[in-house]
Design goal:
Strand order of the largest sheet: 1-2-3-5-4-6-7-8-9
Radius of gyration: 16 Å
Number of domains: 1
Order of helices and strands: HEEEEHEHEHEEHEH
Distance between the termini: 16 Å
Shape: globular
Low-confidence stretches: 1-8
Number of strands: 9
Structural class: alpha/beta
Largest sheet: 9 strands, mixed
Helix content: 25-40%
CATH superfamily: Alpha/Beta hydrolase fold, catalytic domain
Mean pLDDT: 95
Length: 234
């Protein structure tokens, strides 16, 4: 990972993502001691967030999003839920974002940026964004805009459409998982995003399809190694 010697990046101001959201109302309920469900009503749809809050938080967070149909569980067998519990147990806040209008790239990237701002405002100094399928493009676009907060990006079976801005990630870490038997988006999609970004690690998952249902353990193990350094956990 090369050292960034350029000027320090910053997030956009005036208005921020949350400021531009203009909520009509917000409702929140505690599901468990460590999991909250937040709903934000806007004139352009309902933004939903499941928030895993650690008992002893560190200044780091994961913000996750789904594919073109939305969803909050992620790839594999509900891995976003599993990772939410797993990383909250290590002090990392985890936010799972449900889009207002799935498959609308600009609005979905705005929604994910709101999740990054919530995490940042709660104390996270370094955030990793994650997206599955269409959500890979959402994560990359949000990361490009939120350069001061987003420290790295993880994609799962990403599409390449919408990732044309990936070069603007600079030298921030990029990790791409893809099944070699993806029936919807070929593995070349992740390699194309890697090429556009000019860096990144593509992890090929043998025998797996678009939902990556055979690779829970492989992805979890890789993230256990990759995330602590990117999040600055030592």
């Amino acid at each position: 990972m090369s050292e960034n010697t350029g000027p320090s990046p910053s997030d956009p101001v005036g208005p921020t993502a949350l400021g531009a959201l203009r909520p009509l109302a917000t409702s929140e309920v505690a599901i468990t001691e460590s999991l909250r469900h937040r709903e934000v009503y806007t004139s352009r749809g309902l933004l939903t967030v499941l928030w895993h809050e650690p008992s002893a938080p560190v200044p780091a967070a994961l913000v996750m999003c789904g594919g073109a149909m939305g969803g909050l569980l992620g790839p594999g067998h509900g891995l976003y839920q599993q990772w939410g519990d797993r990383w909250a147990g290590r002090g990392v806040r985890v936010l799972r974002v449900g889009y207002r209008k799935p498959n609308n790239l600009d609005l979905c990237a705005h929604d994910l940026a709101c999740g990054v701002e919530w995490a940042r405002d709660a104390g996270a100094e370094r955030v990793v964004v994650m997206g599955h399928s269409f959500g890979g493009a959402v994560a990359i676009r949000a990361a490009v805009v939120m350069a001061g907060s987003v420290a790295g990006v993880v994609t799962f079976a990403t599409q390449s459409a919408g990732c044309e801005v990936a070069a603007a990630l600079g030298d921030r870490p990029l990790l791409l998982f893809h099944g070699d038997r993806d029936e919807i988006l070929p593995a070349e999609s992740s390699h194309m995003v890697q090429a556009i970004a000019g860096h990144g690690d593509v992890v090929m998952l043998a025998g797996d399809g678009h939902l990556l249902a055979k690779s829970d353990g492989v992805m979890t193990e890789r993230l256990d190694v990759w995330l602590p350094e990117v999040l600055g956990l030592g």
